[in-house]
Design brief:
Strand content: 15-25%
Radius of gyration: 15 Å
Helix content: 10-25%
Order of helices and strands: EEEEEHH
Strand order of the largest sheet: 3-4-5
Structural class: alpha+beta
Largest sheet: 3 strands, antiparallel
Amino acid sequence: MVMKEEGNYKLPDWSLDVRCTGKGWEQKHKPCYGMMTLEDGDVLKRITWGEVYYGCICPECKCFTEIPEKLIPSEVKIYAPQVAAPGSNNYENLTKEEKELSKYL
């Protein structure tokens, strides 16, 4: 196969204001209820029992907050790193970077 033209696809500019609620994952952290502006690289995904959920980790309190899937563009969801709680079935399949993100869960 020969490349005719190098790709230069860039994720679309996207942001979403989200309040830290801690909803969507049982965790030890208490939410701070602060407002965050998410960009494409802030969205994480977790897979539990075959279901995919999306959310973010608050930079202040480290709480995971779930985000409704319909609010996230498909281009952002495709590239979202996966997280899993340490000790869960999915944890061992994560990359080093994904395990680092998962340490707050």
